[in-house]
Amino acid sequence: xxxxxxxxxxxxxxxxxxxxxxxxxxxxxxxxxxxxxxxxxxxxxxxxxxxxxxxxxxxxxxxxxxxxxxxxxxxxxxxxxxxxxxxxxxxxxxxxxxxxxxxxxxxxxxxxxxxxxxxxxxxxxxxxxxxxxxxxxxxxxxxxxxxxxxxxxxxxxxxxxxxxxxxxxxxxxxxxxxxxxxxxxxxxxxxxxxxxxxxxxxxxxxxxxxxxxxxxxxxxxxxxxxxxxxxxxxxxxxxxxxxxxxxxxxxxxxxxxxxxxxxxxxxxxxxxxxxxxxxxxxxxxxxxxxxxxxxxxxxxxxxxxxxxxxxxxxxxxxxxxxxxxxxxxxxxxxxxxxxxxxx
Length: 343
Hints:
The protein is α/β, with parallel strands linked by helices. The chain is built from 14 helices and eleven strands. Residues 1-18 have low confidence and may be disordered.
């Protein structure tokens, strides 16, 4: 009988498939297109299917869990969950150098925005490794962060004196330099804040504003990208990552690029055009009913003024917060791509 045990053990080892790797994944805002169209299909279907069942996923989102936005990556680093994705700007209180990923008014098209993000990616990878004990898997865009106002504005100068919800710290600094008052209001709280006059205007992606019903509480839309592109960083806990075999790592990195990151970028430019049409009625709206917000076209003078303030005041201010070493890295990477130098 004892002689048969090694044979039995060997046969069981051959017959038993490798144990699956389960991933607890926390996605970004559940009601917005990035999650519904890209995150959920990738984590819920594409990746498990590509792994032939080796990878299983438990997917939720940070708003469904009621997580504080500034806590998401810290909790990821602690191993509370395995994978998390949200707007990088939510983490700048812990990592001010991360502000350099999403600079307003530098990228006016999706191709320019992706070139800027690709140039910044080695910096971002180091930030997430050192600050959040995590490995960056992908960086995907929300559409450009534009201005919704419940006020009669005709151009950039009309923001002076208004209370404006910014989408990130660098955007808030830019708004303040333009004479507006930057107000910190959570995304889900914006409709009530606009309705009650807590803020006069708010910055977010055009598609996000359409999906969240901001058109119900605002009248004017200015599609100048004062808030950049609000990149969403997907990262995995470093201990979890280091515990995976090379084949699993390669599968995840390959599939997240081809099935999530690339498609999200490929549709970003058309999404802005469609979202503006949906909000203003100027063109066809593929997402549903078109609304009737007033479209405020920013002039070349508006753009030039905001860009000058960005280069002369906002970027040097960030360099002071982040430190000279990060400013130098930004100049040598992102700055080279976009033709801007922090002095």
